[in-house]
């Protein structure tokens, strides 16, 4: 009998222990192994309203933080962003937009290098302005190129194929002579000296990109190449700046061209100016190009891998006559004329000097040169991440000092320290 009672006591004890264990485990304060969900989940009453529609999660409004609906539990104050009472800048700049686009000439194989450039341009400028971006190619763009670039650009992207007649040897070019030149330049180890495609590229950028059907919709362009970097915030609309200040062409880096690539370019320019003297404007920047009033070219040019400019100027009769005249001289194929000296000479002779703008505030890199704005206050105010010691502007191989002198502009304060 005593053994039987003990047996029952054990069973009761075990039952009580089981009940206790159940309560402890269901109200355990030990954190679960799951990550807390950060997603907004509507409460039962919110999941459907009377009409059976699901209420929307609040949308992000301009300049405001997303807030949770009032009947969801209050967020832990430690996790709310601490803005120190400062207003966050608006996501998108207010005001009108110019009729402008970015433009990039690229191959499908350039996709990851142009992706980097777009990321920088968007982060530093275009996420606030949402301008369009036109991509041009001598081949069809593939889906990878289109998908990657479309998601990165905040504006509308457009993809154009270059017509064959703008990317081939014109019939007035002697192909044997051109092939011989490429051989010679290869031996002399002149950069891109033996490349046919590079020559088509330079000719296309010199005379055709602004006439592509996709570009005809626009008045302003900003040229972007693969693997460039932007180092400072740009907090104003550079296209509007150009329009408001009557600028037509702009640059950030200028330098001397390799003489071997353009031995007869200046002769061709002089031939053009003698046939079309009406296209040369008074008050131009000849002083930037020549130290002897036009007799010889000093090889200074604006580096055209960056350009913000006016497309109507490039489409003007003056520029078309200039390009056609140079094209017939044959130097795109019998030498290796770059689009940088071709654009620069046109801007310097066919625009008033005040119409060319130096963007000191656009901090830029294209291998191997950096433009880092002179002036520490500017760099700090605009969150710049370039090293001012790498600034090329006041280096002996840069022509930017010459541009300042041509325009009788004082050089920015502190430039001597960067020489
Ligand atoms: N579609 C196409 N684009 C080209 C070709 N060659 C160069 N480009 C583009 O033309 C621009 C200048 O070429 P790049 O290689 O950067 O020349 P670099 O800056 O003078 O060394 C870049 O935007 C290139 O993506 C080509 O054969 N086809
Ligand atoms: Mg380049």
From TrEMBL:
GO BP annotations listed: cell wall mannoprotein biosynthetic process; protein N-linked glycosylation; protein O-linked glycosylation
Gene3D superfamilies to which the protein is assigned, alphabetical: Spore Coat Polysaccharide Biosynthesis Protein SpsA, Chain A
Compositional bias segments (type: Polar residues): 34-56
InterPro entries: Glyco_trans_15 (IPR002685), Nucleotide-diphossugar_trans (IPR029044)
Keywords: Glycosyltransferase, Signal, Transferase
Region (Disordered): 29-94
Signal peptide span: 1-29
Start-end of Low complexity biased regions: 72-83
Cellular component aspect of the GO annotation: Golgi apparatus; membrane
A matching Pfam family: Glyco_transf_15
Any one GO molecular-function label of the UniProt entry: alpha-1,2-mannosyltransferase activity
Transmembrane segments: none
List of catalytic residues: 307
The keyword Metal-binding is annotated on this UniProt entry: no
Family the entry assigns: Belongs to the glycosyltransferase 15 family.
UniProt protein name: Glycosyltransferase family 15 protein
């Amino acid at each position: 009998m005593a053994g039987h009672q003990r047996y029952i006591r054990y069973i009761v004890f075990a039952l009580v222990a089981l009940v206790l264990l159940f309560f402890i485990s269901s109200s355990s304060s030990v954190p679960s192994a799951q990550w807390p969900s950060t997603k907004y989940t509507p409460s039962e009453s919110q999941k459907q309203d009377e009409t059976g529609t699901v209420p929307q999660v609040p949308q992000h409004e301009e300049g405001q933080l997303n807030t949770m609906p009032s009947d969801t539990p209050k967020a832990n104050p430690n996790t709310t962003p601490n803005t120190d009472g400062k207003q966050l800048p608006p996501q998108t700049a207010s005001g009108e937009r110019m009729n402008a686009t970015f433009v990039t000439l690229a191959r499908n194989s350039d996709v990851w290098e142009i992706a980097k450039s777009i990321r920088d341009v968007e982060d530093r400028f275009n996420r606030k302005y949402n301008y369009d971006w036109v991509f041009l190619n001598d081949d069809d763009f593939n889906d990878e190129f289109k998908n990657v670039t479309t998601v990165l650009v905040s504006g509308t992207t457009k993809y154009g194929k270059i017509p064959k007649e703008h990317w081939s040897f014109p019939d007035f070019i002697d192909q044997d002579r051109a092939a011989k030149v490429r051989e010679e330049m290869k031996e002399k180890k002149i950069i891109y000296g033996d490349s046919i495609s590079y020559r088509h590229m330079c000719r296309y950028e010199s005379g055709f990109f602004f006439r592509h059907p996709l570009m005809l919709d626009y008045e302003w362009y900003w040229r972007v190449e693969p693997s460039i970097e932007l180092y400072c915030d740009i907090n104003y609309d550079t296209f509007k700046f150009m329009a408001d200040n009557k600028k037509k062409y702009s640059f950030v880096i200028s330098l001397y061209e390799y003489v071997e690539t353009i031995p007869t370019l200046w002769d061709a320019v002089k031939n053009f100016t003698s046939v079309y003297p009406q296209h040369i404007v008074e008050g131009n920047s000849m002083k930037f190009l020549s130290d002897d009033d036009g007799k010889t070219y000093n090889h200074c040019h604006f580096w055209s891998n960056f350009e913000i400019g006016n497309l109507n100027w490039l489409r003007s009769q003056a520029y078309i006559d200039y390009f056609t005249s140079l094209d017939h001289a044959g130097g795109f194929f019998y030498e290796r004329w770059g689009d940088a000296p071709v654009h620069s000479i046109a801007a310097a002779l066919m625009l008033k000097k005040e119409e060319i703008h130096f963007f000191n505030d656009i901090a830029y890199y294209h291998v191997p040169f950096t433009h880092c704005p002179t002036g520490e206050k500017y760099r700090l105010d605009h969150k710049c991440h370039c090293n001012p010691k790498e600034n090329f502007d006041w280096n002996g191989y840069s022509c930017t000092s010459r541009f300042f002198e041509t325009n009788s502009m004082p050089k920015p304060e502190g430039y001597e320290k960067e020489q």
